[in-house]
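Researcher: Structure prediction, please.
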Amino acid sequence: MGRDLLRAEHMTVGYGNVPLLSEVELHVRQGEIVTLIGPNGAGKSTILKSIAGQLRLLGGSVYLGEESLASLSPVKAARQMGVLTTGNIRPELMTCEELVGCGRYPYTGRLGILSGEDWDKVYGAMELTHTLDLAGRRFDRLSDGQRQRILLARAICQEPKVLVLDEPTTFLDIRHKLELLTILRELVRNRGIGAVISLHELDLALRLSDYVVCVDGDRIGRLGPPEEILTSSYIEALYGIETGSYDALLGGAEFPPVKGKPKVFVIGGNGSGIAVYRRLHRQNIPFAAGILHENDIDYSVAGALAAETVTEEAFEPIREETYRKAEKLARSCEEVICCLTEFGAMNEANRRLAQIKI
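Model: Predicted structure follows.
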């Protein structure tokens, strides 16, 4: 990664004179996306608003490059930092191209008159965000997804070195979430800018981020590459998950298993059993699963949803001892469902299991 574009040092943030978090340290480098995660009310938005200068710092400093944000005029700060927040913006009678054009005001002088070059920047930003077809439409008549892309175009139009985005995917459906975050990722990679963003969706944070900062209570908890720090146990502790579980491998939360003696034994593997596990769980039927190797894609889901799971060590043939355990459990159930259509040497025991007569 490149040099620091944004740096927060020993930052204390809060509202009024009441501190919420102290000793906040952040670095955003060229070509890097840094994501804040944490439970509702933890202070993610407060951190971003403080970085953007929308809230007064209670301590510490924010730097854009080598310059302190506090020493920069609003115009100079706007040339280096673009901001997109979750606040509802309802400009009266403004078209989308006019709103995007507001991003050029740091460059236009006091009269705010856009030159031909400025309009080229406007339409370039709209092309990048796939919003050119919305240019003449009124902003207040757009869908939430369209509005977010227009606001992102406005921020891009500033030609900032850093983007600060507070929950940009709020209220968006999955299509528009993916569209907006794909645009952001391509922008960061292709133009060498940096981005600091807050997200609720942990699966998207895992896939999007170069670096994750976990906001935990009144402090910053873990920070680092997402694949290193977003373990299942840590996420469950960070969010206080007591009902159900979180699977960091698959990037999703799971409900707790249905209580009771298993009524169905599901033979799965290689992803074949997942749909059946979920169907039985929705129907409130306690079930058992097996025989699954510990590196199988079914393993995590079965472990979360099944009342009992029979497993074998990864890369090892199923032992006779494991088969006997599974057979006993299967015979105690009312039904056996086999989701496998092919059996190899490693799971030949599952073929035998599938032939059990209940």
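Model: The chain has two domains: 4-238, 255-354.
Researcher: Thanks, that helps.
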